[in-house]
Amino acid sequence: MIPALALYGIQKRFGATQILRGVDLAIEPGERHALIGPNGAGKSTLFNLIAGGARPNAGRIDLFGAEITRLAPAAITRRGLARSFQTTSVFARLSVFDNLRCAAMLAERDRTRWWQRFSGSSTVDARAGQVLEAVGLSARRRTQAGTLSYAEQRALDLGLALAGGAHTLLLDEPTAGMNRAEAARAIELIRTATAGRTLLMVEHDMDAVFAIADRISVLVQGRIIATGTPAAIRADAAVRAAYLGDGFRA
Ligand SMILES: Nc1ncnc2c1ncn2[C@@H]1O[C@H](COP(=O)(O)OP(=O)(O)O)[C@@H](O)[C@H]1O
Ligand SMILES: [Mg+2]
C-alpha cells in the first residue's frame, strides 16, 4: 500500500547543529500516528519540514507517493495536507459558519473550473454545515470567530482544515494551553471529526496519545528510536531508558 505520508532519511541542521539525523517514517492512509519525545527532540522542526515551512538538508517527503519535499506550503496544502490548531488562520470578524464557508470555497475553487464556480454555493454550504457539526460548534454558528473561547477557536481551526478538504492532518500539541477537561474534549473531538483521515500529531499528554493513536513513534535527539502500537511502545525498554532523567512528561 502507498503510505499517506512517507519520510525518507530526513536530516535538518541549524547552523552547525544537527537537529534531525535521518528520520524514516511511513504512515498508512487513515492511520492515527502520534509522535512523542522530549522537548527539543525536533518534533516541531519535522512538522515544519513536512508542511513546507523549511527544507531538509537531506531526505525526501512523499504525500500519497508523490514527492512534496521542495514544494511551497500553499502547494502542499492544495494537495491535501493541513497543519492545524494554529488560531492564526481564523478570520476573527467573520462568523464561525462564514469562516468554514471560506475554507470550503477555497477548496472548491481549486477543484473546479472557473465556469463551474458560479453555479451556486450549495456544495460549499453543505460542506460547511457538516464540518460545523463535526467540530461541535453548531451552537456557535453565527458567533464572531474572534469572540470564541480558546478551545473553541482551536476546534474551528481544525474545522477549517476539514472544510478545506485536507486528507492528512498535522497537529502539533493540539491540547497545549488547555486544562485537563478541555484537553480530553479536544482529543475526543479530534478523534471523531478526523475519522477516515490520516493524522500525525505531537502530544505530550500520554492519556491522550493512548486514547487516539494507532501507532506511536518516539523521536529522541533527532532520531526515531521506536515505532509501534501503544502497547508495544509502553513496553519498549529503549523508550523507557531514553526518558530517564530528561524532560519528557509522561
Ligand atoms: N529556526 C531555528 N533555528 C535554530 N535552531 C532551531 C530552530 N528551530 C528549532 N531549533 C532548535 O532545534 C531543536 C529542536 O526544536 P523543536 O523541533 O522545536 O523540538 P520539539 O518540538 O521536539 O520540542 C531545539 O534545540 C531548537 O532550539
Ligand atoms: Mg515542539
From TrEMBL:
Species the sequence originates in: Paraburkholderia domus
Quote the EC number: 3.6.3.-
Q: Identify the keywords attached in UniProt to this record, alphabetized.
A: ATP-binding, Cell inner membrane, Cell membrane, Hydrolase, Membrane, Nucleotide-binding, Transport
Recorded GO molecular functions are:
ATP binding; ATP hydrolysis activity
Leading EC class:
hydrolase
Give residue ranges for domain ABC transporter. Answer: 5-246
Q: Which Gene3D superfamilies match?
A: P-loop containing nucleotide triphosphate hydrolases
- What protein is this chain from? Lipopolysaccharide export system ATP-binding protein LptB
Instruction: Please give an example of a GO cellular component term from this record.
Output: plasma membrane
Task: Output the lineage of the source organism.
Answer: Bacteria, Pseudomonadati, Pseudomonadota, Betaproteobacteria, Burkholderiales
Q: Which InterPro entries match?
A: AAA+_ATPase, ABC_AA/LPS_Transport, ABC_transporter-like_ATP-bd, BCA_ABC_TP_C, P-loop_NTPase
| Gene giving rise to this polypeptide | lptB_6
